[in-house]
Amino acid sequence: MRSPLCDAFGIDHPIFAFTPSEHVAAAVSRAGGLGVLGCVRFNDTDELERTLGWLDDNTDGKPYGVDVVMPMKVPTEGTSVDLQAMIPPEHLSFVERTLQQLGVPPLPEGEGRAGVLGWLHSVARSHVDVALAHRPVLIANALGSPPLDVIEKAHEHGVKVAALAGAAKHALSHVANGVDVIVAQGYEAGGHTGEIASMVLTPEIVDAVGPDVPVLGAGGIGSGRQIAASMALGAQGVWTGSIWLGTEEYQNLQSNEGWTEAFTRATSSDTVRTRIYTGKPARLLKTRWTEAWAADDAPEPLPMPLQNLLVAEAHNRINASGDPDVISMPIGQIVGRMNEVRPVAEVMADLVSGFADAVARLDKLRA
């Protein structure tokens, strides 16, 4: 399983793995793919500094990437206190009332009070600055093209830039801005996602940007057969995410029985695309929490970053409670295949062997 991206990034397999866990990212890179650390969870740049230092030391010299959440246009942004003041009281009361109705206990005093500030433009910029002091080979942006000066700064450090696109017109805009790699993010994906399924989206974007711009297929990919299908559609590799939530290494970041039960029992129809997580459409596991937000008496989600600030502590409380009927997690439709917890190396091996089997099966059809 090789493509020009393997040589461009110094990897064995064109499997890019987005994950909030440095342990998963390191394991993917050691196994020949490219682990991409999601930085949005880091409110403290010192913690990100330590984490990237750990990645530098625990990837056996293999490359890795980072993922930030940064709008291209710089928003008017006050302090976190200013933003909190913009959250309507009725939204705050709805969240607290819903948590009580769902039986979610409060966190211990002093825990989980801060929102995830990585959704703020200024914090995302600090993430880029910290990352460029280490050795990532890729900076990916979950909200499309980063600002032009960020792209230029990455290129000055010899770091390539990737951006997610949910439509061909978005991909063309990214290329015009200087983005190096396009991630064609299909509707099936977890987290932020558009409205076009990957079977349609990937070839549309490949045709739009032309042969000189590498495209990664994304959305619903969790087997070697699906990687083969994505590359048959013209992608040079794949961008994966949800599948790594079911790995042993991820348990270092998030581990409780409720979390594991929630995703291992889910089917591919047990997700919902909603704005309740960040203010932008994102696919989440369908639970009593998402159902509460879909009720007639629920308020409309707030725009980014206010919605995240509104629900950040609620999500911490929900996840800490360990109730699989309530737990909130961004996850894609591939969750229906995530039926057991496995080590990253085993998942990688299955992806590679499954790809080889699929290609061999197709070769027989040409005889």
UniProtKB/TrEMBL annotation:
Q: Which CDD domains match?
A: NPD_like
* UniProt superkingdom: Bacteria
Check the record and name the InterPro entries matching this protein.
Aldolase_TIM, NMO
Question: What is this protein identified as?
Answer: Nitronate monooxygenase family protein
Any Pfam family matching the protein: NMO
A molecular function (GO) term: monooxygenase activity
Q: Cite the entry's keywords alphabetically.
A: Flavoprotein, FMN, Monooxygenase, Oxidoreductase
